[in-house]
Design a protein that fits this description.
- The structure is a single chain.
- This protein is mainly beta and about 290 residues long.
- Helices cover about 0% and strands about 45% of the residues.
- It contains one helix and 23 strands.
- The longest helix has 6 residues, at about 100-105.
Length: about 290
């Protein structure tokens, strides 16, 4: 798979041209690889871009107007080739634009720009959607980066925890076979930390809506900061790992969420959907800071 690299004095980042997938985040100081390297034994991807919807649509179908479309989990962007628009030493812009194939799966004309920008020990990931249609368009958009946890051979995943900016009182929305089932449960207990235990993801991903916090930090058992992930303005956040043995954790900021069980199929009324007017642009950003 074709991969493009950007770097500075602190970090080297690899991006796959297919899916514009963030595929490597490596320290230039000590060589540490922070991003999951897509071992198919557990999960064969690094960091999918989720567009034009998040998670599953009910029975793999959705309706826009009078027409019904088929759609697989997380949409088509993660499997689509992106075009290079700008490549510099420390920044890159890639674009996915509507084409015959996308219009068969999703009836809107759009441009999706992915920008990766290095700034010292930070990687900024910027999303820009532009409506190129003659009608309002509807979409969801999100990220799915997987980080190596643990980072060292003599450690285990439960040696790490996530610390949030503020104490949180939101509950995780529960899933049944990948669909929201209307139930929720508390995992914070009024605190600002989540221990990464082996049974944390036994009921699938943790999905939160309307956080107070704008960032979280991965810490080890010595309370040392590893990295900080910012997700300001994203209304949803997913945290996921494949199973109790998977040596990675995904941090997933979203505009949108999976369908509920027995959803209506009307894509324009889907929870979390973004409506973008004719000629308008939508942008959002999250960042990773390496400590």
């Amino acid at each position: 798979m074709s991969q493009i690299f950007i770097e500075n004095n602190f970090l080297k980042v690899g991006i796959n041209q297919v899916g514009a997938e963030f595929a490597s985040l490596q320290s230039k100081i000590d060589g540490t690889e922070y991003l999951w390297q897509a071992d198919p034994t557990f999960w064969g991807r690094h960091s999918c871009i989720l567009f034009p919807y998040i998670g599953k649509v009910w029975e793999d179908k959705f309706r826009i107007g009078e027409k019904t479309f088929e759609g697989k989990q997380h949409g088509f962007a993660r499997n689509s080739p992106f075009e290079e628009i700008l490549v510099n030493k420390d920044k890159i812009t890639l674009q996915l634009k509507h084409n015959k194939k996308t219009l068969d799966e999703y009836p809107y004309k759009f441009s999706l720009l992915m920008k990766y920008v290095l700034e010292k020990n930070q990687l900024h990931i910027i999303y820009e959607v532009e409506n190129l249609d003659d009608q309002p368009i509807h979409f969801s958009l999100g990220a799915h980066p997987a980080f190596n946890v643990p980072l060292k051979e003599n450690e285990k995943r439960s040696d790490y925890f996530l610390e949030f900016e503020k104490d949180e009182f939101v509950e995780t929305l529960e899933l049944t076979n990948g669909y929201l089932n209307g139930n929720s449960r508390d995992v914070f207990n009024g605190k600002n930390t989540i221990q990464i235990t082996d049974d944390l993801f036994n009921k699938d991903a943790l999905i939160f809506k309307d956080f107070e916090s704008n960032y979280l930090t991965l810490k080890n058992s010595k309370n040392e900061k590893i990295w900080t992930f910012t997700f300001e303005d994203f209304p949803y956040l997913g945290i996921w790992s494949k199973n109790d043995k998977s040596p990675f954790v995904c941090i997933e900021p979203w505009f949108g969420v999976a369908d509920e069980v027995n959803a209506d199929w009307d894509f324009r009324k889907k929870e979390g959907i973004v409506e973008l007017g004719i000629g308008e642009k939508f942008s959002c950003k999250h960042s990773v800071i390496i400590h």
